[in-house]
Amino acid sequence: MAQARSSLISLDATPYYHCVSRCVRRSFLCGHDDTTDKSYEHRRGWIEKRLLALSHAFCIDVCAYAIMSNHYHVVLHININKAKTLSPLDVAERWLAFHQGPLLIQRFIRGDKLSEAESESCMNIIEVWRERLTSVSWFMRLINQHIAAEANREDKCTGHFWEGRFKSQALLDEKALAAAMAYVDLNPVRAAIADTPEQSDHTSVKARIESLKSEDITAPSLFPFAGNPREDMPDGIPFRLMDYLELVDWTGRQVRDDKRGHIENGLPPLLSRLGFDTQSWIRTCTKIERGSIVGAESAVKAALPHLNRQRMSGIRLPYR
Q1: Angle ∠(103,104,106) on CA atoms, nearest 5
Q2: Mean model confidence pLDDT for the chain
Q3: Backbone φ and ψ of 115, nearest 5°
Q4: Do the Cβ atoms of 276 and 318 come closer than 8 Å?
């Protein structure tokens, strides 16, 4: 039975969420269908383009993503502070980048003189849009509706394209965030469609590696890494990028039957700082999709009231 979205997403619990959408039909979302000998690889570009475009309009940052043959993963950060600082005009322009707006809002954007009643009505509409710009549900809807329409048009068919609602997991602490991001970035490696993270097309880890090669400060359209947590830390993922890339590379080499439990090299600094031992990290990174809450037991307990839940569930990470 599907859970109410209010029991899955709450800003009071955490701003970080891992979301997955899966294709419902036998026909591929992406990849190559050996039965029909038809390639759908170009659809990966559709999803990546739409995802990153929406990240510019919404106050939702993309931390990680991977686009697979019949599903895609994203790790998102709800940036409520950014939403609060947007002017009414900013909100209207962002929302209308993907929607048709009422005539009243169009007049507001043009700078036409509005009556007091019209201005009040206009501001009410814009405040609804401001809230939607921080909504994971709206963000995922605008990806999936667009891709479904394009795929149905290309396949010359109608009907459902996605497997019901997207799945979401609340990532309650740094450990959960690191595990979910590594899990997402390593999807192509685990699926044996890429040998290394830097060869994993249509993933955030490859985009970040490419940005390093180009000596860019951060990968375009992705939430930047801000470094280790401290009071004056800028807005961003609370790790160092190089630590994270080392962790992903190390994890990719360990998540294999012939490597599990056999660690040849020293632990990456990020793994040590988060307090993971090797076995618990590997276990977490291979089972991250189980459950709708991920975090240390204390974080899970604290989040339950915010998520309107009573029972402990999901993945409880080791506490240091």
Answers
A1: 60
A2: 84
A3: -70, 170
A4: yes
pLDDT tens per residue across span 221-275: 899 998 876 666 678 999 999 899 999 988 888 765 554 433 345 667 777 777 7
Q: One-letter amino acid identity for 128?
A: V
Quote the pTM value. 0.86
